[in-house]
Each structure stands twice: as C-alpha cells, then as structure tokens.
Amino acid sequence: MGTNGVAVGESVRDAVYRSCILLDDEKWSDWLNLCDADFEYEITAWSPEINKDMIYFSGNRDYLQSMTDMLDKHNTDHSPLRRHATVYTIDENDDGTLTVMSSLAIYQNLLDGINSHIDAGESHLFVIGRYIDKMKIEDGKAIFLERKVALDTRRLDKGSHWPL
Amino acid sequence: MPARNHNQWKANPPLKGGEWIDSRIYSDPEIYEQELEDIFKKVWVPICHESELPDPYDFRTATIAREPVVVARGPDNVVRAFLNVCPHRGMMIERRPSGSFEEAAPSGNPKRMTCMFHGWQYDMKGNCVYISREKEGYQDRLCKEDTGLRRLRCEVNFGGFIWVSLDDKVMSLEDWCGDAFKCIRKPLEAEPLEIFHYHKAVIGTNYKLWHDTNSEFYHDFMHYHNRVTGFNDAYFARENTAFKHGHVNVGSFEVQYDEYEGFESRAELSFPGLPPNQWYMVDLFPGMNFNLRGSALRCDIVTPLGPDKVMIEFRGFGLKSDTPEERRTRIDHHNSIWGPFGRNLHEDLIGVAGQGSAMLPGSENRRILHGRHENNLIHDEVGMRHYYDEWGKWMNRLPSDPSQPYMPAEAAE
Ligand code: FES
Ligand SMILES: [Fe+2]
Question: Which residues form the domain of B358?
Fold first, then answer.
C-alpha cells in the first residue's frame, strides 16, 4: 500500500463508516455521492439449502437512485436500521484499487414492524454478513467503486425496501 | 354508515353465505391442530425442486405437519422420500438442510443415511442395512428387516418439483392438481428448470392469510409497481378460474414492465411457449403458489408453525440451459419485485403481518369479507371463496361459523 498506507487506511475507514451513518439516516443521495459514477451494488448470500451463490438485489448507481427516489410511493415499514461495520482488511489490487472487507451486523429498531403498541422501541438483529467494497483513492479520498453486501442471513422475514 | 357500536360491529354483513368468513379460522389453536391432521397430513406438498438434489446421494430435508421428512436421490437416480426419524430411539436422522450421503457421517459409512446416536444405517431405498451389535442385543427377536425407514409417497412433476405426502392413500398427484397446472405446464416442462433463489420468512400470521394474498389481486392497490405496470384494460380482464380440490388460477395479461422507472421488458427471456411478458399464477390448496412472470418462476411453500405463525419459503427458477448472462437477467427480473429487497414482497409481507397482529389467538372474532363479484375477473374474490368452501369440506366446519359443521355456501345463508 506504499508509504502513505496509514493515510489510505484512514480514508478507507472514514468512507466505510460514513456510508453506515448516511445509510442509517436514510440519506440515500448523500450515500451515493460517496460512490463513483459507475458504482455497482449487490446484496448476495450463499445458500447451504440449495448449495448456490445467490444474488438478492443488485443495481448500479442510477438504479439505486431511482429505487430510493421512489420509496415514497411504496408502502414500507418504518423501522430504522443501524449498521455496525468494522473494517477488518484493506488489500491493494493489481490495478491500484483496494478491496476492503468489513464485518457487518445490522440491527433493526422497530417502529411499526408488527404491533407498534407492543414492539415500537424494541431492537433486534436484522442481518449479519460482510461488506466487501472495492474502492479507489482520489485526492486522498476513498471512493466506492463496488459494494457487495455478502449476507449470512437467509431468513429475512419481512425484508426491506432499503439498501443495506 | 357511521362508525358502529359493538352489536352493529358483530352483526353479519349484508352478504350471502360464503362471502365472508369468521376470523377464528385464522387464530384458533384447536382449528390449527385439526388442519395439520386433516389437511396437511393428507395432501401433496411440493417440498423442493429436483435441481436442489442434482446428483445421486444428494438429499434435502423438510417438515410437513411437524413431521421431519428427508428426500434423497438414489444411485438409480430415483428420488425417494422418508420420514427423517430413526426407528431405534426416534432421533432425527439427517439434521442438515441439504448435502450428500456420498461421504460417510462420523459414525457411519459412505452412501448410507446414518443415525449418529447409535450408528444404525439405512440405504437410499430406506432399508435398514446396519444395526450396531445387532445379534448381541436383539438375538433373533428383532433384525434389520423389522427396522426399515417409513417411506412416503413421492413424485416428481410439474417442472421437476418434488412432491411428498404423508398419506399412503393420497390420490395421484396428477388427479390432485393436474388441471390447475394446465395453463403453465408447457413452459414448465419444455426443458429442465434450475433453482437460483432461496430465502425464507417467518411471519406472525396464519398460513392461510399468505395464501389469500397470493390468491387475490384486489390488493394490487398497495403495490405501486403493479398499479403502474398493470391497471389497464387487459389487466382488468384477467380471469380467475377455480379447479377441483380448492385450486385456483389467475389468468394472464401482458405486463408493461417498462412503465416502472428502471425496469425493463421481459419479453426476450420469456419461458418457452409463453407469449412475451405474460403472467400466470397457480394457487394450490392448502398453501402453495406457482407464479410465472415471463422470465422467472417463483414458488412459495408455506409451513404452518402455529395458528399465528408461518414459515414461507421463497424459491426462484430459470432454465437449466441458461447462459450466465441469461441467468443473470432472470435473477434481476425476479429480484426487482419478488426478492427480499424487491418492490412487492416486502409490501405483501407487511400486509399479512398486519392481519396477523390484529387476529391473535383469543382476540374477538371478526367477519373477513370475501364478497367481491366482478364476473370472476381480476378483483373478484372468487379465489378465496372457492378455497374456503374446500377448506370447510376438509375440516367439516363452516368457514363463517367454525363451530358449525360444513354446509354448502347457499345453504349457509
Ligand atoms: S436413535 Fe438412531 S440409532 Fe439409536
Ligand atoms: Fe402482492
């Protein structure tokens, strides 16, 4: 990672943690602004039930923008998600980009999940997995080129309309 | 009418028999137990797809009406089903969701189902082939011939789904639901299918409420996607067709996928023999659904876990012959609406969770209306009326008053 490895590490971690906060706060456009114009996003899981790698959701930056722009037209539950990521490894690829692996747990804080009189305010684990990000450094800033949310969780109950 | 007092609220609606039901059938623990005995133990259940066990010795496990089931592909390529219970002391033999018996279990031999507890072993036909220290313990009183597995009726049909019944005397699968599959049989059977999607949901609601949602399209009002891609003359001309044994079809029309920003037409990858962008739905009693939207097939299977709890397994399928690009496109089409993060599934699940939380066991019984008549067209609630008439017969209960014995809807007015 060269001599400025410490600085790179800092920008990468800053970008990953910032993405968590922006996603938590449902600031979708601000989150997408951390990403390259050609950004690609995927939610995946490996299923031991059917012995296959699966894709649960995917899209480029424009697709994510239009899906999030249309959220107001969709019925959704309003239980906010809280992403807890820890950057574990940062590896440099041959082309100079970085592969960043973070451990991920997303908690759900119920509002109207089931019966809000009883459940509102309760928090539980929603999904576990990893963020596998591909990034580049530009002017000292880490930019997302790809994000793969590799889930372990396959029992997703009501699911979600939101990017994870 | 303004808001009603308690008596007015409890009064029967001004509809005919069969046009509403009593919500106790969605919440009563006694009714739930009877459903497991009298319905789920008596019908055909599609527990998985042949592409989930492609090779000899591959297996898959499931549960029907609390009974653990294992299906395994034999060296002869035949898929057989057994109760996944050891005849010795009742251990569940295979505990994983899927895998292969080709490799030996820690306390057994290759190509055998081994019960880990005391090491009894079974072959792919369910014969008991090994009892540890057999002669020493049982002398001549009990031997392997007495301790085979319980075999279950099993058929592979309608596009390679593996159907199991706990009832040895169940009617043939063809008689059970052949008619209901007619509309999509060609596209499903033209060439082998392959699974690409699996996820599950456990929801606090009754299993029938999920099936109802799959059988009525009036709720398209809650799906922005369906309003903009459907809701044209052809949509309102879609027909619901009832079949014997409580099954229903929802007829097709051409979906305008490109009316939803970011989505595309599915014409190019329509299943073989299916005109472009068509959408057929097969709803099977008592809670299985096959949904063919042009380029991808979805299958929902319910496993009731209580009067107010259900597991729904969601599967997605393409053609085995797909190129990687074709498969990828089918997956994207599937996910856009049906994936766990897609546009519609989340809304459907919120809907039934909301019903479930308002119909908990012990809550006051209400009248649930199924009384829309529109010449059997798309927003006609004939699918649910047909289902509950069948349910009434199986349960010998009147859906509008489950404490009374079944009688035909006309007589129940
Ligand atoms: S319980 Fe299976 S071998 Fe004893
Ligand atoms: Fe729906």
Answer: 179-412
Sign for the pseudo-dihedral over CA of B287, B292, B298, B299: positive
* Nearest CB neighbour to A48, from listed B98, B335, B357: B98
In-domain check, residue B174:
no
Tens of pLDDT along chain B (413 residues)? 799 999 999 999 999 989 999 999 999 999 999 999 999 999 999 999 999 999 999 999 999 999 999 999 999 999 999 999 999 999 999 999 999 999 999 999 999 999 999 999 999 999 999 999 999 999 999 999 999 999 999 999 999 999 999 999 999 999 999 999 999 999 999 999 999 999 999 999 999 999 999 999 999 999 999 999 888 888 898 999 999 999 999 988 888 888 888 888 888 899 998 888 888 999 999 999 999 988 999 999 999 999 999 999 999 999 999 999 999 999 999 999 999 999 999 999 999 999 999 999 999 999 999 999 999 999 999 999 999 999 999 999 999 999 999 999 877 66
CATH number at residue B194: 3.90.380.10
Angle at B239 between CA B235 and CA B243, to 5 degrees: 150
> Do B120 and B200 share a domain, yes or no?
no
- The domain total for chain B is 2
Tell me if B382 is assigned to some domain: yes
CA distance A116 to chain B (A): 10
Assign a CATH topology to domain A5-151.
Answer: Nuclear Transport Factor 2; Chain: A, (3.10.450)
How far apart (Å, rounded) are the C-alpha atoms in residues B43 and B35? 11
B265 part of contact set with chain A, CB < 8 Å: no
Using the Cβ of B186 and the Cβ atoms of chain A, whether some distance falls under 8 Å is answered with no
B325 touches chain A (CB under 8 A): no
Interface predicted TM-score of the whole assembly (ipTM), two decimals: 0.96
CB pairs under 8 A between A and B: 112
Predicted structure pTM score:
0.97
Domain boundaries of chain A, sorted by first residue: 5-151
d(CA B167, CA B39): 10
Which of B247, B174, B187 lies closest to B215, judged by CA? B247
Closest Cα to atom 1 of ligand 1? B89
Radius of gyration over every alpha carbon of chain A, rounded to an integer in angstroms: 17
